[in-house]
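Q: What structure does this chain adopt?
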Amino acid sequence: MTGRIVLLGVTGYTGGLVLDALLRRGLEPVLAGRDGAALAAIAERAGGLATVVVDVTEADSVARLVRRGDVLISTVGPFERFGHGVARAAADAGAHYIDSTGEVGFVVDLRRQVHERARETGALMLPAFGYDYVCGILAGTLAARTAGPELRSVDIGYFATGSLRRGLSHGTRTTLRDGLTLPSARRRAGRLVEERTGSRVRGFDIGGKRKNATLVSGTEVLFLPTGFPALDDVTVYNGWFPRLSRPLVVLSAATAVMIRIPHGRRIVDALTRPMIGPPGGPDAVERARTRTHVVAVASGAPGPLAEVHVEGPSAYSLTGELMAWAAERLATTPPRTAGVVGPVEAFGLGRFVAGCAEIGLRPVSPRRLLHTFAQVWEGGG
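A:
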């Protein structure tokens, strides 16, 4: 192994899942966080791991956390509040960086603020490397490749099989609540634009049924066009609660009006606070009851050209396994590039597809698309 793996945020729900995935791979990460006693207890249960106490709000503290060649995994959010200093420290040190953010605005900021610095130091930066938004990039890339030269747009829908009523973490509920007041990024006519979250509804064919999904943000709008210069439009939708798609459009519009009036944001926060729920997230039994299903539809002037569906474990299990896979690879193999990039640019399509398959995230598409998938896998990327 060429560098240490440092896990920041292990006392949280997502951090715990990442730790479990790392340990299953036989890896021994350094555990970092603010609460020394909590870190020590987790480290002891994990077999005696090293720990480092760090305060992410103090630049000097974060700067001492990593060195060149290390891999820093961060699950400490909200990333708009706590993530910038951590990412900057990794870029300055030449340490590779992986995070679990679902905040696309944060990723946009990283590309603008630390991309060039990371290229200078050789740091590979992989933000949003979990369920958000690796699944959509996998499906979207395969669909775009299948579509061929007529490709102009990709629509991506995130769905889940099984009940999510008791299967959402505190962090996810908070993100969903906060997302009502934040715009969603789309790629339209070759440009990045913002639209009101939930302002669009699109239907997708899932398991023989037509299910609706509403407009959300996704890093697919940032990273898919890198490999497909002719890709003018990219839009991401969430269909976790397809029956609520139309009501969510109304709620989104009402929220947009409310936050413009005096004290409106405070009122919205108070009314939606019950959405957040208790700390933590679904246990292994609950996670086993849901699976990930993501679809990408690639289109051109004639209409739809290709459709790829991918399925995998629950959103939370998938996030832990994805981040552990990426960390192991970066700690053992010199990266092929540096800077703030997406999964395909970071690993090459063949290795990325193989890595997803290793943890159970695979296409479940018609035969002609599976043939294309097989060609990608065999090509190695």
